[in-house]
Structures are given as C-alpha cells and as structure tokens.
Amino acid sequence: MTSRDALALIEVDVISCRACPRLVEWRERVARDKRAAFAGETYWGRPVPGFGDPHARVLIVGLAPAAHGGNRTGRIFTGDRSGDWLFASLHRCGFASQPTSVRRDDGLSLDNAYVAAAVRCAPPANKPAPEERDRCQTYLEREMEALPEVRCVVALGAYAWDSALRVHAALGGPRPRPKPRFGHGAEADLGDYLLLGSFHPSQQNTFTGRLTEEMLDAVFLRAAQLAL
Length: 228
Prior knowledge:
By secondary structure, the protein is α/β, with parallel strands linked by helices. Helices cover 39% and strands 11% of the residues.
C-alpha cells in the first residue's frame, strides 16, 4: 500500500470516529451553536484528519482543532489565528503554496510537510482528557507508519511534544534518557528522525510576543535543513 492510500484510509477512520462521548457532544454543539461571525456557514463538526504531502520529510503536530477553526472548516489549523501564523511561516520557509488558509478548498498545498494533531476533535477549553488523548493516539501512530520518509517532527507546544514522544515509544522506538524537555528550538534525536520543539502559534503566545515570526521561521528553517 502506498503512503497516499494508507493516509486516505486513516482519514476515513478519523472522520467517522465517535470514541469519546464528551468530545462528540462538544464538537457537535459548537457546530450547532455557531459563533455569530460564522452564522451563515455549515460547520464541519466532526474529527479533523491530518493533511499534506504523502512523501513528507517533515511532520508537524499540533494539539487539537480549534472549535471555530478546524472544527468549522474541516482542516486542521484552517480558518483561525494560529493557522494564519503557521501557514504564513510554512510559506516563507518553502513548505506551503500560499501564506493563508481559510477553507479546505482554498488551493493550499503542502510540499514536503504533513500537518496532524495529537487529538482530532475540538476539546472544551482546548483541554482533552488523558483518556481522550490516549484513544486518539493510534491515528498519529498510523500516520507515522504511513510517512516513512519523515526525518523531522515539529511539535507545536508541550502537549504535542509529549504526544510525539508517546507515539515514538508506542511504535517501538528507543526511549531517550533522561526524557527530553520541551522548549522553543529544543531538539531530541529519536533515531530515525529528530523531534523539534516550537511554542504553539496561539494568540496567547503571538499577542504577547512570546512567539515572534522570526522565532517560528527559525524552527521551520531548521526543519527544512533536517529534511534534506
């Protein structure tokens, strides 16, 4: 089976998942009780699959879809402020065909990069429960197996960093000792690939200056270097 075929099967399984009652109820309630700015839109309201280049050498992992971002548009980091920062940086660093992403069919394509999340449903207050995280982990494991050319995993935030380490262990990878600590620009050699940390491009980080465009670009330029 090709990477493209394997990823397509994972996408079908993700979209149909109803394993976590709390998340199902929340994502569907948000899709019904829409934000006023999007009152005329039809929300996705389902789990959000990963997307990108099936031959990617860089895998980007976030926390979960935003309630009025990915949960609305059906594509991770699409239609929210975090995505505005992420895709602008990916475009500047040569991974994305355009600097903005507002909907699933807006023409955006990724080159040598694939974007996924630790949890595929929008969680209340952006806080998945541990058991919800654990149920969802299998999707990221399957994506890692379907993307054998990955040489760098970029974790957007500490949650994604820990998730990437759990997936690495679940797939039989050696456990680094001591456990690698998350930080912006932190690196951990996991054998076949390098784990690279970045502050999440959330408004909490970008509005306060904790994360700047230059800082985010530095991470993806390093990822591009590792992907050569």
